[in-house]
Amino acid sequence: MGCFQCCIAFLFFIVSQRTAPGLITEQLMKEFDVNAVFIGFLTSIQFFAYAGLQIPIGIFSDRYGPNYFLIFGTLLTGVGTLLYSIAPNEWLLICARLLVGVGDAAIWVNLVLILSQWFKVNEFVQLLAFAGMSGSLGFLMASVPFSASIDLLGWRIPFLITGCLLCICGILLYIVLVKKPRQMESYLQKEIKSGDCPSSNKEKTVVILRRLFSNRQAWATFLCHFGVVETYVGFIGSWAVPYGMTRSGVSQLIMVGLIGAIIGAPLTGWITGRIHSIKRPYVIVHIFTVCSWLIFFLFNGEPPFVLLVILFFIIGYCSGASALTFAVVRQSFPIKEVGVVSGFANTGGFLSAVLLPIIFGNVLDHYHGSIEMGIIMDLSFQLFFLYLNFLV
Predict the structure, then answer these.
(1) Prediction pTM value
(2) Is 349 left (phi over 0), alpha (psi -120 to 50) or beta?
(3) In principle, which of 85, 100, 300, 341 could form an S-S bond with 160, CB 3.0–4.6 Å?
């Protein structure tokens, strides 16, 4: 459990760094004399590095083990954050965010793989849920405490402190995963006896990718994760302002959704343990998401405020509960393929977070901000993803 506690701590800080740079856009533009195009590029380079490396890292983690990749990813994220905090020019800013993106890409897939190797399925689901909650708390930290610390200390010191903490977490992970690996060795010996351990004969990458892209269940997890994440991020990213609310009102609704996301992962994980089923809660999460958008549609995009708050909470809850995607992967695939399939599924969630707000924004512009058209899109997406759940 020492490993898990350490993982939870560093995941909290790493996730906060995905959105924290957005808090200092004005400071960067003023200090480095750059325009909005550069800021957009600075943000995208981190996320594209993250997305592009998910499947390759999954393959290498399955082949060589997740421990060193997790340690390296944590240290690289810490070093990148440190460089970001002391960057004297825009070029070092770009290099720093690229390092953060590469390091961050190695985190979630390897965390899922380590937990799947160290713990039984029921324990894995519970711990994965708490890991998801830690990630949601990281987003919360980036929105309130981190913003307050920037106002108090300037933007460089908070990033410097976070970078140091991430480097310390990397050292702690090395101690837990490499210096004291007795629990892992004991588990692997059992796996070798049971025949579930990865074969010493390493498959060619082309063979692995061909099997991955032709597997119906792998695509189902990719698209289901895509569907649950995109509704939450897409709504917040594209619809909150067109909905006609003030900035203060929007921030309050986003906070309600974030609270739902924090609760969603551990509560759903607890439910799966009580009923000894992963698929049923996973399907129900999608049903609730569909019903939420159906209610939006029935009210022509303008439900009463109290109902709007409830809907935001449910959508956020379902987004947090989407961590069950990786529990489905663990249950449906052999240990030797958990890393690459987890990376593939995580790519789906990430792509939705990047692409769908852009698509929805264009649709809203085309229909002159019609919220109803966006709801029709999301509802059709969710009906499709709900159908995919029955393939998982």
Answers:
(1) 0.76
(2) alpha
(3) 85
